[in-house]
From TrEMBL:
The lineage of its organism: Bacteria, Bacillati, Bacillota, Bacilli, Lactobacillales. It catalyses: sn-glycerol 3-phosphate + NAD(+) = dihydroxyacetone phosphate + NADH + H(+); sn-glycerol 3-phosphate + NADP(+) = dihydroxyacetone phosphate + NADPH + H(+). Substrate binds at residues 109, 259-260. This is Glycerol-3-phosphate dehydrogenase [NAD(P)+]. Residues 3-164 form the Glycerol-3-phosphate dehydrogenase NAD-dependent N-terminal domain. NAD(+) binds at residues 8-13, 144, 259.
Length: 336
């Protein structure tokens, strides 16, 4: 039995914590919301984030971070990108007082605004190296709503520390949830963030009434720009064709369970970004990631026409049909 703290009781943190608890591990789910901790401990539900789900009774939630991480081997952070630094700072303070070392994992899919840092870079800056033995990312095609129902799921667990990735793999895997290890932390984090941009575009196509041809074209052509940026930043090309790359691109670009896809769907149906964001009540990572990638792709001199088109729709009020027409009207070229 492994002791593990999961930080963040949104839909994904709750589903991962529940999976590890079902696998027989000692799981402490930390939330900054005391009412939510109370609901999880007494009702075994998390109605705001996973409305239909019944959680395993022994899943323990707490709003006390020191209690959550006391003597755990693994801390798995699953908060939205914008909360990563704040939560990691608190974690750093707690670990300093407890003076013990943890495997520091995360399952967040985004990039920091302004700095364009990956999540593990933020974690490494906020949690002193003395208190962490490894940095790990849990990624791949995995909607919380499906995982909590025990729908078949495969994920990717990446780290430069193979034994740390293997421990996470063992803690999370069971006969409906299969984790693979991977050694490309950078590529896994980067592709996880990039696919959210594409999912907004894919939802928008369906919202406008286009079909599977259009979606297949978008997802496939997006691979070209994900590959170009990935290679420029040091990702391994093979990661793009694995679970953290194309796997996640497929599920987020096609599933109505995706918040990014649903945001795009709403935009395609004529809603404003503000409406879409307030209706969702959950994080839509791709909106901020689009801005981050739009800004730094120029520094890397990588041509990302799909990302630029989605940026123009989200941030410059360009009508979606006009953005599509401009993309379709680009000079004809070869595929690569
Ligand atoms: N929902 C899913 O199926 C999946 C989500 N992810 C990623 O996991 C991350 C979290 O996503 P979700 O669980 O969907 O988010 P969510 O919107 O369902 O929940 C976010 C949680 O973070 C908490 N939170 C927000 N700000 C906070 C702060 N400053 N301090 C402490 N807690 C704070 C909220 O109270 C909430 O419990 C995102 O990066 C997302 O891309 C990855 C794979 C699957
Ligand atoms: O990353 C995800 C599935 O693998 C979740 O995507 P959404 O945040 O769009 O729901």
């Amino acid at each position: 039995m492994t002791k593990i703290a999961v930080l963040g009781a949104g839909s994904w943190g709750t589903a991962l914590a529940n999976t590890a608890a079902e696998n027989g591990h000692d799981v402490r789910l930390w939330t900054h919301n005391t009412d939510q901790a109370e609901e999880i401990n007494t009702q075994h539900t998390n109605t705001k984030y996973l409305p239909q789900a019944k959680l395993i009774d022994k899943l323990m939630a707490t709003s006390n971070m020191a209690l959550a991480v006391s003597d755990v081997e693994i801390v798995l952070s699953v908060v939205p990108t914008k909360a990563v630094r704040e939560v990691a700072k608190q974690l750093g303070e707690v670990l300093k007082k407890q003076s013990h070392t943890v495997i520091l994992a995360h399952a967040t899919k985004g990039l920091e605004q302004g700095t364009y840092k990956r999540i593990s870079e933020m974690l490494a800056e906020e949690v002193p190296a003395l208190y962490r033995s490894a940095l790990v990312v849990v990624s791949g095609p995995s909607h919380a709503e499906d995982v909590i129902k025990h729908d078949l799921t495969a994920v990717s667990i990446a780290s430069s520390d193979e034994s740390a990735a293997r421990l996470l793999q063992k803690v999370l895997s069971n006969n409906t949830f299969r984790a693979y290890t991977n050694d490309d932390l950078l590529g896994s984090e980067l592709f996880a963030a990039l696919k959210n941009i594409v999912a907004i575009g894919s939802g928008a196509l369906i919202g406008l009434g286009y079909g599977a041809n259009a979606q297949a074209a978008l997802l496939t052509r997006s691979l070209v720009e994900m590959r170009a940026l990935g290679l420029a930043m040091g990702a391994k090309e093979k990661t793009l064709y694995e679970l953290a790359g194309i796997g996640d691109l497929i599920v987020t670009g096609m599933s109505p369970n995706s918040r990014n896809y649903r945001a795009g769907l709403g935009l395609g149906q004529g809603k404003t970004l503000e409406q879409v964001e307030s209706d969702m009540g959950m994080v839509i990572e791709g909106v901020n990631t689009t801005k981050a990638v739009y800004d730094f792709a120029q520094d890397y001199k990588v041509d990302m026409p799909i990302t630029v088109a989605i940026y123009q729709v989200l941030y410059e009020n360009k009508p979606i049909r006009e953005a599509i027409s401009d993309l379709m009207g680009r000079p004809l070229k070869s595929e690569d």
